[in-house]
Amino acid sequence: MNKLELLLRKYANNFLLSDNIINDNKIEYLNFRNIVTVTDINLIKVYSIKEIINFFKEKLNSELILLDSSEPNYEMIETTSKKVVNGKYDLVIALGGGSILDVVKSSSVYENSFKNVDDFSGSKKQYTKKILKTLAIPTTAGTGSEFTHTSVYKTETNIKTWLWDELTYFDFVLYSPSLTLDLPNNITIACGVDALCHLLESIMSVKFDSQNLDLYNSGINSIWISLPKLIEDKNNIEERTNMLLASGIAGKAIHFTGCGICHCIAHTLGSMINVPHGIAIAYGLLHTIEPTLKYNQDLLSRYNGLFKNSTSDSLAQEIQDWLNNFKINFDIIENKINFEEFIKIYYLEDNKCMRDNTFYQPTKSDLKILLKNLWK
Fold first, then answer.
1. Is 149 exposed, middle or buried (0-12, 13-18, 19+ CB in 10 A)?
2. Model confidence at 50: pLDDT above 80
3. Distance between CA 266 and CA 188 in Å, rounded?
4. Within the chain, what is the greatest distance between any pair of CA atoms?
5. Which domains does the chain carry?
């Protein structure tokens, strides 16, 4: 058991780590009678995923729900929740990236099968009943959705927002690093940057709690080292394992602190244009890390490990250089965003919790300058 696994187990006892689900049969301890697996139509084309689905069908008699590979929206959640309720399942397995995991969490509560999901966005209303057990099997190392109560989705008006409730969580988590081997580099990078941003935002959060300091720093150190190694050798199973565990740690981190300014920017961009979440996150982090660190110098004392005794200038530069080394293509968003529309969405009430969770809170004119390459 490596150090990351030991650390994560201090905060979560509901996960297993297995490099070969089929052969070691760790999944069978669940012993549920009526099981359904939820995944997306692109994943079933991947050989390793297809093997797992067939295993669930043969060994667990699991049925299958296939979803589009697009970002979750209100309709996807409501439709899936209806299928889950009508199927009278007692376990739903989420096999996929953060989008699939978010859909399953939000589909497992009773109200979403017959009420409008948008009525519950931003925690406007509380759910009353979780209708079945849930198991997460992440196929990406990024969102940490397996350890949060949050589901990100698009509303009926196409605004990217979130659901959060005490009842929207996973009962079980199963990590299988080999399931991430077929990820293209651009997805591995986007997911890894998202996980790192979760940790950076947690350590700089207004809601920061020093008792979790080792959790945040250990996750940051791991991703910082492991992600570049994976781009050099995508088949490095040890680093794949580290990235999954670190993304779980990142999920735990934002469960404690919530997200900040980078996610507010990313949600705004995701509402306006079809951009992968990790790319939007990378852009927000690249352009806000320097003013965030300079605004509150006390934040530097929270960093240990690789960044201990850094100055605001040196740390900001290191993070920017680390991001730039991945050569992320921002063409999809730069020079394509209407500034006034961006501001309107950025300041929506559902985004307030992210805006207010950063010591540095830019004004409208600050944003225009900071993100100047976005605007048409």
1. middle
2. yes
3. 18
4. 59
5. 3-179 (3.40.50.1970), 183-374 (1.20.1090.10)
Give the CA-trace dihedral at 104, 106, 108, 112, to 10 degrees: -130
CA distance 110 to 131: 6
Model confidence pLDDT, tens digit, residues 273-322: 999 999 999 999 999 999 999 999 999 999 999 999 999 999 999 999 99
DSSP assignment of 159-224, as one string? -EEEEE-TT---SEEEE-GGGGTT--HHHHHHHHHHHHHHHHHHHTBTT--GGGHHHHHHHHHHHH
**Average pLDDT value for the chain:** 95
Question: How far is it, in rounded angstroms, from Cα 336 to Cα 86?
Answer: 43
Q: Residue 304 and residue 141: Cα distance in Å, rounded?
A: 23
**Predicted confidence (pLDDT) at residue 81 exceeds the cutoff of 80:** yes
- Cα distance between residue 231 and residue 189, in whole Å: 8
Six-digit token string for 101: 């995991």
The Cα–Cα gap between 368 and 86 comes to 49
What's the pTM value of the predicted model, to 2 decimals?
0.96
pLDDT tens-digit readout, 192-247: 999 999 999 999 999 998 999 999 999 999 999 999 999 999 999 999 999 999 99
